[in-house]
Design a protein that fits this description.
Shape: globular
CATH architecture: Alpha-Beta Barrel
Largest sheet: 8 strands, mixed, barrel
Number of strands: 10
CATH topology: TIM Barrel
CATH class: Alpha Beta
Helix content: 40-55%
Bound molecules: ligand C2E, magnesium ion
Structural class: alpha/beta
Oligomer: single chain
Order of helices and strands: HHEEEHHEHHEHHEHEHHEHEEH
Number of domains: 1
Distance between the termini: 50 Å
Number of helices: 13
Amino acid sequence: MYQAKDAGRATYKIFDSQMGEKVTKRIERERELVQAIQNNNFKLTYQPIVALETGEMLSVEALVRWHHPLHGIIQPDDFILIAEETGLILEIGNWVLAEACKQIKIWDQSFPQAKKLSMSVNLSGKQIANPDFFDFLVHTLEETKLQAKRLHLEITENTIVEDAEQALNTLSKISALGVELHLDDFGTGYSSIAYLHNFPIKALKIDKSFIHRLKNQGKGRALIEGIIHLATVLGLDVVAEGIELPEQLTLLKELNCGQGQGFYAAEPMYKEDMEFMLRKSGNIFDLNKE
Ligand code: C2E
Ligand code: MG
Ligand code: MG
């Protein structure tokens, strides 16, 4: 069924032995995910989001990793979908949220400049659709004493797609708390622009596929220029994702893109490396390196 679904609407697939193997693997993965939750086998990495003009780190995005006892580190692309389909994302996502909020408050105490940072957390549609999520969020903010405005929740169109009315209701309540909602992977879905209109979005993150196609001239540049212009007239912040090359940084600065995230500035890092960096260079990145 999943393979037929993956191939698009109104399609069918005949079951064969290869699929049987895949199904067995998948069932195994689900069972392992349940165990991973019980054994707390998840860890967070943090990737800086910087001001392109000054190199100042403005926030960090929490990105989850599964530390599997046999297979080592498993990336989110290899388990988030299964976690969503099985509903396990509720527990994983809530753990991520609580852990990220706790972590930034711990950094506040050791690094004075950390107080200027915000924490970005990715949200799954399953969390927003869950009737208990809002209370969990309020409870987490109260418990950690993190100011709501320092929490940014990243959502995608897929987050909202299942029940738009219910999602709008929950997201409006979240926004009223002071938590910022950021639209992730902007440009890759069907109706991103409509969402900017209907939902209380504070910033958009241009999907990395656009940044990777960015050339000095041509459509790539024009598209990003258009997105930045749209965001500016709507009063939204813009973050360019996936900056890997100095040329991309230069072009984005030329186009007045305010913020960026990508391997060129910093890769996602575990808390120890983040602390090393906060201790050594504070919040400032040297973006003019060779
Ligand atoms: P995302 O939220 O769009 O996160 C950005 C992804 O791009 C991260 O991949 C990051 O490591 C990667 N990235 C950053 N800079 C660059 C770059 O310069 N080049 C390239 N090629 N990639 C870059 P990651 O950590 O593998 O996460 C993938 C996706 O998994 C995330 O995309 C997000 O949608 C999802 N995810 C991660 N953590 C969570 C979580 O806690 N909850 C939920 N629901 N989803 C999560
Ligand atoms: Mg994100
Ligand atoms: Mg993204």
